[in-house]
Each structure stands twice: as C-alpha cells, then as structure tokens.
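Journal club side-thread
Mid-discussion, someone asked how the predicted structure for our own chain would compare to the paper's figures. Pasting it here so we can look after the session.
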Amino acid sequence: MKIFIYPANSLILSDLVERFGHQPLAIMKEIRKKVTDPGLDSPPLNMTPDDAKKGLKYAAIEIPSGVRGRMALMDPLIEQAEAAIIVEDADYMFGCMGCARTNELLKYVIRNKGIPVLELKYPKNENEAKNFVLYVKEFLDKLKVSEAGVELTPEPKQEVRR
C-alpha cells in the first residue's frame, strides 16, 4: 500500500513504513525527477508551466507562488496516497518541511482525501519513541490486513494517537 508520510522528507518515517511492508510516498523521489530531467536548464528544480497548473488545483492564483509550487511538487504523492501518517511538532532533524502555510494546506488536503490517517505527536523521550514505533506498526499492520481482503471491524477513517 502507498503511504503518504508527513513530513514528506523524513527518512526515519520513510524507513519505518518500508520496514513494515509498505511503499512510502516521500518527496525525495519527486525532487530527483525534477533535478535529473534534462529538459530544462534551471536547477535546482525544473518547474514547468504544467507544474504551475497542478499547484492551482490546490491554491488560488492569489496565493503566493511558493505555496503553489510546493503543492505542485506534492501533487503526485497526494494523488497516489492510499493512507497517511502525519507527525505533528516534529524536530527539524526529523524532516523539516520549510513553509508553514504549505504544510497546513498539505495536511488539510490529506485529511480530507478520505483515506486512513494516523496522526502522532513527535516523541520527546525513549518511552514515547517506543510507543511511536508501536502505533505506526499497528496502523500499517491493519492496512496490510485490509489490503489482503480480510474484512476489518468498522473503524473511523482517521486515527489520532497523542
């Protein structure tokens, strides 16, 4: 199953998702496509007019271009997401996302997509870190069972662990 992770550049969260048998949707692969594309000569990101249009899908023309550009970059990840894990109040070394307004819009779009979402607070001590990994594992295991076609008891679409 394809799992959207937030922060989208978190190597730790990406590794956890992969270890538990799912595909993490991380921003690094999308950036790589833009940087290694030989079509345009404007590094570090080769934004095209089509990318700007993708950004307009999420934010109006009056919104700063940086927000629309970031949302255009995130669009393929949002479209592919079958579930999501959102980590709130993460340490900047866990995966800094940079733009606060884009972050709020991104979380809003993911929460309203109608996919299962696990929201966690960033752990502040060893015990919280152990629980963090446990919650992620339980969430991903439930997704694996539901993906295999086994009927689960009805649960809310969104799961919040604090």
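Post-session note: The two ends are 24 Å apart (CA to CA).
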